């Protein structure tokens, strides 16, 4: 019974998802809005329970962890931190989706998929066994595949979902292949037991093959170049609320899985995978920022920007100091607020263009749709400005603090060249972010010019995301402390 209680946040999400599904059967499309509020309440409850458990795990200056269900799941500071990341994204998405699913016949299905996807991500964060990790990975992936193609009448949505599904299936196969090689070399799927027998991996050349396959498998979820092919089309074609879940939530699942598998299980092979991740980090951040400059679709620009952000987080694998890992872990939370908020703001503009039936209806997120947004939809414009400046690393925002910790730790580790590349990339990103701000505040609106009232769910979701971005920027100490405690699970010091 005690073991069940450790999974209280996950159980609350599953219970909420089942209640939403059941209730949806008996409700008319007009009254299904209540399901959004129910999903939001369930997510908030899970957040409270996770914060409470985090406090118990790290109280009185020391840190404890629990291995439950025959040590297949680990409840520690790392798992709880990432659970907070996933739940924060789920909260923002659940709130915004109240408007998106308004009068929809499939409201209950949408929220159930979001909640089950979040549940899968949370299990991945706790996974202490390779089989459990893979199964949870696939649970979250299957739910997000369905969400990506949720707009069945939208050709771009279906195209993005199909690419996501096909490439995701191939990456899952590669991941499973890599995990099977690790099992073949060590005779166990338990991450702690694999870590205790490093000689088995060092002496066996199959370990290198496993690293290559696992890098490809995890690289897909993390959207690292060259495993990113699905991301731009999927992020652009998916509903904006789903893009927020994919970019801000699902991607972090890949990172926490990679943290556990590479840093803990495959620590013996660190020189090999460290070189690979260093190369991937440089290529990903540079490619993402360079290609983002040429984009005219804001959601597509945010997709390539998301690649660049993944490159920054991957620097933690390259540097491998406790502070660098803490910086990378902190960056995942900052990115969750920044990117989820940016996609929701883009979703508000898409809603405005679609409801007015003016402008570029084929690409409602086109840059031209953002002309004069500062006058037409001031709140959305202001929030988007905060998010893009945070993504560029402008103080006093979450992006600045996370980059400061990550980049300074890189310099301290003697990898100044990597920090210089990252800083130059951040400077480049400021160009296309500033261009978006120019469109919103310094260019006249196209077509209709009257002020548009932003729907309350979008406004509430944006306020949650902005609060997270500014809280981390203005009061970073508790977040840095939590990230350091999470890093201690990976590298005890």
Please, could you describe this protein's structure?
The chain is mostly helical and 493 residues long. It has one domain (2-490). It contains 21 helices and two strands. It has helices spanning 2-6, 8-26, 33-57, 77-100, 107-126, 130-148, 155-186, 191-196, 198-202, 206-222, 231-237, 240-265, 270-292, 298-319, 322-356, 373-376, 378-392, 398-412, 416-442, 456-474, 477-490, and strands at 66-68, 73-75. It has a two-stranded antiparallel sheet. Strand 1 (66-68) and strand 2 (73-75) form a beta hairpin. Helix 7 (155-186) packs antiparallel against helix 10, helix 11 (231-237) crosses helix 14 (298-319) and helix 15 (322-356) packs antiparallel against helix 20 (456-474). The longest helix has 35 residues, at 322-356. The radius of gyration is 21 Å and the shape is globular. The model has no long low-confidence stretch (mean pLDDT 87).
